[in-house]
Amino acid sequence: MIETAVVRREGVMDAQHKYEPVRVWVRAWDDEADVWVVVMAADEQTATDNAVSELNQMIAEKDSN
Amino acid sequence: MAWTVPTTRSTGYTVTAANWNELVGNFAHLDEVAYTSFSADVSITATTVGTANQIVSSGAITYENVPHFIYFYCPFVSPGTQVTHVIVRDSTTVLGRIAIVAASGGAVPMYTSFRVTPTAASHTYNIAAWNAAAATCTFNAGTGGAAGDGTTDLNGYIQVCRIPT
To answer: Is the Cβ of A19 closer than 8 Å to some Cβ of chain B?
Structure first.
């Protein structure tokens, strides 16, 4: 099962003192397949989507070997 | 992943994937975990800890259960007429006071740090402050100035780093 978590952030507090992300790093991993990847993007959703996509590719490559 | 004390190898040693991954893990350990800047002044007007004004937040991050340092910097704190308590919180849970600003004192910079070993879970570390009674204390910050401008504040920040230990 693929799991994800935000493991690193860069952000700013805007003029209203609200948190705004600048760069977000998401780790995606699959313990069963013993693979993980960390992907950075400008927002959490994009980073998560890209990390899951990349991890799926890694799992597929691993399965084909 | 946790920091691994590096091991020296002898000539002729065949490096394995496990050796490589040990180094990968150590380099990843040295990554900055969080950095959030603020470039606008934050006025502290709260008079209770429960309503403390947030100055800067790291945002929600899933932490590893290893030692971290939390650093907070503000170039210019302008005290109010009452004592101001500066606190570290995890979301809204107060972890403790990290600094105190004396009442009616001179303007000072603030650079503080705090070591914490979080549980392996999501945490939102943030810095906030409140006054002992009605007053306004200001944490000043800016975007820095052009060349030769020595009076425009730089940004303040919260930074979180893992410790290689």
So the answer is: yes
